[in-house]
Amino acid sequence: MFRTSLRTISLAVTLTVLSLVSPAIAQQSSAPHPTAPSAQTPALSAPATTVQAPSSPSGASGPSSTEAAPSPAGDAGANLLEQASPHDLSPWSMFMSADIVVKLVMIGLAFASLVTWTICIAKMVELSLARRKLGAALTEVSESRSLAEAQMALGAKDGVLASLLASAMHEARLSAGISSDAGIKERAASNFAEIVRAESRRIRLGMGLLATIGATSPFVGLFGTVWGIMNSFIGISKSQTTNLAVVAPGIAEALLATALGLVAAIPAVIIYNHFARVTKGYVELVSRASGSAGRLLSRDLDRTHVGSIGGARSRAAE
């Protein structure tokens, strides 16, 4: 019985010491653990503790009840502080904590924005070089009197004007021996129109993609926002709280999708309108080149008829 009572008292003392020391251990994890020495203390002071056997259980139950009570309240307060603590609302953090569907929407919109700026840089360089090249070619052939002189002035340069001159020369060779100039000019004009249309399609390459991005990006971003807000409301219903610190991050992540949609759409619309004006001016320059090639062909036809008429008159005079 004595050994049983001693063990009971030792266990009660040990539990009392642990209940007193455990809050300090939770706050200061680097402090040495007091459990091992406290377990040996009752064994050394066994005769002293036997004298206080009647009062020890009451003393043990008193401090344990008074000290263990604040522990759940402290945990609840820590949870509230953690919920009320400000979230990292930087764009990258919101992207990483967003739903997978919202992430896919954001990635798609970022890719669309990258495509927009790539097309912008590429078309800017392409249109600048094409306008400069065609303008220089028109200047070189402006003093030419025939198709042959114009081709010699251009040399081995490639371009839309060289294609127009080659088409005119080809039609003139195919129509040799035909006395109808109107038919030759009509066929040449048809070839010129095809070349101009082909050049217009080539120079407008990528414009349709800009129009698509500018028209659909806001709605794609809105889809991501609706999806994110829906998930936020589902989380609110599960957590059963309307605390702004809990609700705001999810809604901010959803609104980021709309912001990315506008970031992708607004530059696409502006760039599309700019290049629509620039390409229209370039197509007009190509039409000027077509008209220049047609005039050179007409001069060659007139010279051919004048030469044939002069030869006929000289033969008649003989």
Automatic annotation (TrEMBL):
GO terms for biological process: protein import. It holds the Pfam family MotA_ExbB. Residues 29-79 are annotated as: Disordered. Residues 164-284 form the MotA/TolQ/ExbB proton channel domain. Residues 53-74 have a biased composition (Low complexity). Keywords: Cell inner membrane, Cell membrane, Membrane, Protein transport, Signal, Transmembrane, Transmembrane helix, Transport. Its main location: membrane. It is a multi-pass membrane protein. GO terms for cellular component: plasma membrane. Residues 1-26 form the signal peptide. The chain crosses the membrane at residues 100-122, 207-230, 250-272. Residues 29-52 have a biased composition (Polar residues). The keyword Cytoplasm does not apply. One of its GO terms (molecular function) is transmembrane transporter activity. It comes from the Bacteria. It is found in: Cell inner membrane; Membrane. Involved in the TonB-dependent energy-dependent transport of various receptor-bound substrates. Protects ExbD from proteolytic degradation and functionally stabilizes TonB. NCBIfam families: exbB. The accessory proteins ExbB and ExbD seem to form a complex with TonB. Belongs to the exbB/tolQ family. This is Biopolymer transport protein ExbB. It comes from Nitrobacter vulgaris.
